[in-house]
């Protein structure tokens, strides 16, 4: 991060030039976001004003760029937070779907609870681009309304929407409960390996009893996902050690040292575990007499 800050601080371009450079980034096929990163790093009044003015433009591309600028001004300082959140919430009613997408994504970065109700209202939007933005926007809120929408989105027809919703339920919230666990359990049957992996991690974080058998099942497939290994490390069940060691012996790691290291990390975590591994959700606990 320090090297990035030095690089961004040394960039000679004006903020106006960076806005135009970011337009090119948004239309590029790769994921380069250096120009917007510098604008966020600067995060001053000038950058805020550029973003604010763009959100008022008649051009929808301008409004999308403006929303993207307002997302992370000042990085962790969260500069101009109140003003930015208000502008971004207003953009959720924009007639252009791409603008709504960027506004929702930006509100996810801002992580302000005031955005939850208007985002939830868009959870059934006809455009998957908007629904993906909504999913991102709601993904870090330990809020019942937000979580109910994420559960709904975890069943979406669009793979990207479903994937991010499952990730949010699995890893971005701390709440537990039957509805959350059942949504994660449903994800174990998803045809997409990444979504199944997120579901495994979510259940492993909550020490759900179902995850052990599902991990063994997942490891019988031809392609073993890194997410399933991360779930095993999260679960840290000593009974997984022989299964992990079998994977260690049977898989070819010649081109993937990282994968081999993660399996070893999972083995070590499982060996170190003592005491109770699994627990019920709060809603499933037996009442005390």
Automatic annotation (TrEMBL):
InterPro entries: ARM-like, ARM-type_fold, PBS_lyase_HEAT. Coiled coil: none annotated. GO terms for molecular function: oxidoreductase activity. Pfam families: HEAT_2. PANTHER family: DEOXYHYPUSINE HYDROXYLASE, PBS LYASE HEAT-LIKE PROTEIN. This is HEAT repeat-containing protein. It comes from Candidatus Electrothrix marina. The lineage of its organism: Bacteria, Pseudomonadati, Thermodesulfobacteriota, Desulfobulbia, Desulfobulbales.
